[in-house]
Request: fold
Amino acid sequence: QVQLVESGGGLVQAGGSLRLSCAASGRTFSSYAMGWFRQAPGKGREFVAAISWAGGTTYYADSIKGRATISRDNAKNAVYLQMNSLKPEDTARYYCAAGRGAHFMDRMVAIDYWGQGTQVTVSS
Reply:
């Protein structure tokens, strides 16, 4: 069992930066691929980024590529999402997820655990 708790969201002006954190409980954290997803009001949940269990491989949605960096610290049971050059269209609730394969997280399959999310609001 893995519990995920996100933090770091908030209100930021367009062009600003935020670093989201996801703290995981459970001894098996390092065996999971981790991902970030987001959901804007009235829209479906969408993939943002994923990282393999060892942190050696990362994947990004085209909408955020070049503006975000996903990383993890298995010693701290944590995964991070650094977002720069934020745009109003990045406004959404951001969710952390643990799954069985980073390379197919963009299809939202084989995801075992979800966090409750943290709100990111980007003002223009």
Notes: DSSP finds no helices and eleven strands in the chain. Residues 30 and 74 are 6 Å apart (CA to CA). The chain has a mean pLDDT of 95. The longest strand covers residues 18-25.
